[in-house]
Amino acid sequence: MNRREVLKSSVGIGLLGSANILTGCEKAATKPNSTVKAEGPVVISTWDHGIPANNKAWEILSSNGSSLNASEKGVMVVESNPEVRTVGIGSRPDREGHVTLDACIMDGESGKCGSVAFLQDIENPIGVARLVMEQTPHAMIVGAGAKQFALSNGFEETNLLTQISTDEYNEWLKTSEYQPVINIENHDTIGLLSLDSSGNLAGACTTSGAAYKMHGRVGDSPLIGAGLFVDNEIGGACATGLGEAVIRSAGSAMVVETMRNGAEPEKACEMIVERIIKKEKSIENLQVGFLALRKDGSFGSFCIYQGFTYAYKTSTDEGLLNASSKFEKIVT
Ligand code: SD4
């Protein structure tokens, strides 16, 4: 396919700092103030598949459950859906044909976190990450050790490679080109942040990472501070997009620190996106987006290229937002 990408700065045309509310497929008006104020329990999560994740999380939050449970169970819905091709079962494999998963969870109340990376044959890596947090003295377990830990704790060995992924992989092998296309799939990593009725924050992040990545590659999503960070005093943040750039910037931790220094959630996301743009040599094929949820329930998001969506749910409202972006991206 011959795709030419034309980047157009949106700053001059008033899109910077704005979030479009989408309901279903319908676009609503541009919001004048991009950080959304909300009270009481709140859940936000990345991409369109954030909607079912939020619905599950909301069942827990609305019955005074913990943000930790809400975050874990919310993203599990997406991990267990084989139609989501970038998280859990049904994911695209690496270039050697193996589905390998990364996930982490962080609990604001205890300040603890748990993570797994390069985990194979386990449908719900987020559940394993939670067990790492709660039942081991460690914060992160990877590869065969993580699988062994999961199996010994009752997780079942599951073939995560579906027929459609196998067929696509065989097609991919004909060229073996590794060129991730920004936003094309629109159903990426799920990062979810929640605030419960007790005022505690938690977050979870889970992914199969980049399709056709090198065997053994680990992205930002299982790395506390990169793909996810939660500080119960301030707020939480999570990331989606090219993990290598998020790792290089310690992205989510920096978003939280920027909120600590007084920035509103969306502004904090924007400042770290700007830092990444400045640092990276080329941003032509680089998408990074952050979500941030502050302790007071306000939230926001910012990404490099238009097209990153996120879902939110509060006691008064819910929907899908188009994250504010630095650039409009036109694919011709
Ligand atoms: C990774 N950040 O492994 C993940 C993938 C992702 O949008 O979120 N893509 O790099």
Could you describe the 3D structure shown?
It is a single chain. This protein is of the alpha+beta class and 332 residues long. The chain has eight helices and 16 strands. It has helices spanning 50-61, 67-79, 125-135, 143-152, 163-173, 243-248, 251-260, 265-279, and strands at 5-9, 19-23, 26-31, 42-46, 101-107, 113-119, 140-142, 190-195, 201-207, 228-231, 235-241, 288-294, 299-305, 309-314, 318-322, 324-331. It has a ten-stranded mixed sheet. A hairpin with a 5-residue loop joins strand 8 (190-195) and strand 9 (201-207). Helix 1 (50-61) runs antiparallel to helix 2 (67-79) and helix 7 (251-260) packs across helix 8. The protein is globular. N-hydroxy-L-asparagine (SD4) is lined by residues 188-189, 207, 209-210, 219-221, 240-243.
Topology of helices and strands:
Elements lengths: L4 E5 L9 E5 L2 E6 L10 E5 L3 H12 L5 H13 L21 E7 L5 E7 L5 H11 L4 E3 H10 L10 H11 L16 E6 L5 E7 L20 E4 L3 E7 L1 H6 L2 H10 L4 H15 L8 E7 L4 E7 L3 E6 L3 E5 L1 E8 L1
Parallel strand pairs: 6-7, 13-16
Antiparallel strand pairs: 1-16, 2-3, 2-15, 4-8, 4-14, 5-6, 5-9, 8-9, 10-11, 11-12, 12-13, 14-15
Helix pairs in contact: 1-2, 2-3, 7-8
Bound molecules: N-hydroxy-L-asparagine.
The site of N-hydroxy-L-asparagine (SD4) has 12 residues, from strand 11.
